[in-house]
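TEACHING EXERCISE
Course module: macromolecular assemblies
Task: Read the component lines below, then compare them to the predicted structure of the full complex.
Student: A.B.
Group: 4
Components provided:
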Amino acid sequence: MSKKLTSRTEDYSRWYNELVIKADLAETSAVRGCMVIKPYGYAIWEKMQHQLDHMFKETGHQNAYFPLFVPKSLFEAEEKNAEGFAKECAVVTHYRLQNDPEKEGKLRVDPEAKLEEELVVRPTSEAIIWNTFKGWIQSYRDLPLLINQWANVVRWEMRTRLFLRTAEFLWQEGHTAHATEKEAIDEAKQMQEVYATFAEQYMAMPVVRGAKTESERFAGALETYTIEALMQDGKALQAGTSHFLGQNFANAFDVKFTSREGKLEYVWATSWGVSTRLIGGLIMTHSDDNGLVLPPKLAPIQVVIVPIYKGEEQLQQISEKLDPIIDALKAKGISVKFDNRDTLRPGAKFAEYELKGVPVRIAMGKRDLENGTLEIARRDTFEKQSVNQSEVVVKVSDLLHEIQENLYQRAVDFRAAHTTIVDSFEDFKGAIKNKGGFVAAHWDGTAETEDKIKELTKATIRCIPNDSKEEEGLCVLTGKPSKRRVLFAKAY
Amino acid sequence: MSKKLTSRTEDYSRWYNELVIKADLAETSAVRGCMVIKPYGYAIWEKMQHQLDHMFKETGHQNAYFPLFVPKSLFEAEEKNAEGFAKECAVVTHYRLQNDPEKEGKLRVDPEAKLEEELVVRPTSEAIIWNTFKGWIQSYRDLPLLINQWANVVRWEMRTRLFLRTAEFLWQEGHTAHATEKEAIDEAKQMQEVYATFAEQYMAMPVVRGAKTESERFAGALETYTIEALMQDGKALQAGTSHFLGQNFANAFDVKFTSREGKLEYVWATSWGVSTRLIGGLIMTHSDDNGLVLPPKLAPIQVVIVPIYKGEEQLQQISEKLDPIIDALKAKGISVKFDNRDTLRPGAKFAEYELKGVPVRIAMGKRDLENGTLEIARRDTFEKQSVNQSEVVVKVSDLLHEIQENLYQRAVDFRAAHTTIVDSFEDFKGAIKNKGGFVAAHWDGTAETEDKIKELTKATIRCIPNDSKEEEGLCVLTGKPSKRRVLFAKAY
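Instructor-supplied answer key:
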């Protein structure tokens, strides 16, 4: 605890890694690329889940649960999807271990317990779910089918980072089936908007809503809608995606329905997901060199109260004053921790809660006892104020809103300051290299140019923003005509 | 929907299987032994999770998340645990698929992507968690460590049944670490009591609290505390277990702490879990030949309202009366579904909600409109009553409590009628064979006798009940002395 964090300017990547560990959010495990999500990190995930789940249900979705394993023959049914994930999937080949005859006390795979068909640990569940949907859908009356699943998935990533890219991660995956193309596209767009609302209003993380280019689309999708956030180091983070899958999976799994007009037609599909990666985005949007900074709406502890006292008697006097305040805060739905541990000095506690990003800290000492006051400190700006005890509930309640707003506004300002409009490739390279952030530039619409730019600058097209204006222009690389600007950035 | 359920007396097992399918709770999947939990079944699980999670947090536990995979070398570290699960575990051996050169469009395991060390898909997480705890525990100040995980686990069962025994299932697993033996035992017992309270007060399923015999213990436990329920066919269901693990895992993973006295000691452990199996128990405790019967506290829909009308105008008149009633019910926290579909007749709707076990049904027709009344029907007894519209909120609220109570009492009575005290092996065999249920008998305490009785009657010792009185007696099989009766039954 005592050792300081590496600062962001010194080494942003190291700062992130240290912060995740020191703030007790997660750690690496004995399994390559898999993380352990520690209680404090998991509590943030629970808050995210709770809100997202509510939003999914409000938009008519129901939760269900599908198998962890995908038989190889189903996995390969939708060709593009299979191709996209085959290179990084964990495969179960046996269903039993036995004593190793050569090593006392050790086990080995039982060669006689080989599966007839290998099972893929789901990297995503389109295949197993569409194979199931086949039995659920006969008529237009069964549509739309609006399903969500909270689950773990596995993608055998070679380079992993806590939360941002792990071999196993937790996520939700929505899978919906529709009678018409339009309805499916509307659904995919609606869920993009749900994600954007969640990111902005709960995570206080502004996002650009847009569509992916063909080469950045989800394997098997006709269109991928994305929300893209900007981290403090100027790199973009893809924070959530929503896919219009056309009839690809209906075709692959033969899912047809009888329309209102009595015709047999293939079903239209979407899928959409966000994951524990969001926690990485949350950290990198707001936190500082002192530690985590959490938006109040997702903070497991919103207010921490630290008594500053000498001896039992003083602690008791302070506690007596604080008890009704704690009750009043809790009654307002505010999560409060009263830290009266006698094993740690107040200064050490302050540092701990700073590191853990608790939005509001209240301290009460001897002088406060005499004056009927309290000291309130906010995590985002470090401002402190002395407040009358009778006003504390209103003050804290207001402050939580203010912090939520301030964090969002700060991130919006940061993004504005780190979005550059360029019209030449020199400026493009300069912006990417020296300033970072989003670069809005004209692009000729070809995958070839996209690849070339990536090769030269490491920047990729994050999205074609939904609100990108039609405007005549020339591709920054090739000079060919372009109808609108797209958003480039280096990305996580 | 129209085809009737097999009755329980005709074939209990088939009745169960049909009910799970027809009530839309779950279905089998393309993966051997794995189920798909459908939205209605999952909604019950969510209600269970919500309440259990609340109870775990109230008793000081925090959620976290650990990897799905256990490296073989960790898996085999605690010998008994490894031995217990080695025979039924899914093993990941490769991390990539590639195009099959011999079959166009097909994939095969890439032989070059073989893992150096195989990964076991967790059948339970003691190994991976204790390997992690090693880094979290140094001093007595780090104890107790009270962790819970909501997760999926895989056990390669040969004979599976929806909810009751599936290769993959959802569960929670608590894992705690303590400074003293007593504290760990108290924790294990406390969680047994939490499970029992949940079973009785929420599932309306009475349970016997007891300890397992040595041969029925969890692999690696020194003591397994269990809650045992009785199903309508006279078979017992182990509904939840809580294990005192002694220092076995601390030894295997070298987890020591510095005590208050400065001594280095091994940590004491517990683990405890309940799973989606509870849904099987819920079904088999209350349901009848008409379908599911759900206790109100766990019913996804507590009240369904069906308007009985001819024509749009009448529907509108009825809806106008119902709208404020629906609002008032919802304001009381009651979950209400208003089913005004025009594609189904009221009779068909009644049958559907009966099948789905909705506790209370309200119907309102033309005559009710004239009389200012409503018809309320309860699912458990099929009783109907005409109620004044102004009284409906109070009535429904009372009725939900009454149904919850009645279901519990009915199950308690059933169990009392199906618990037999026997003192000879003839009576023992007769009771097990002809009557089923729990049989309380003296046993000489040896695994040999336990095995022999199982071989002869298929009955196993479900538990040594916590409240079993000390009483001198003679083992029903061997005539050897015994200090107390234990509870036998055939079991799921």
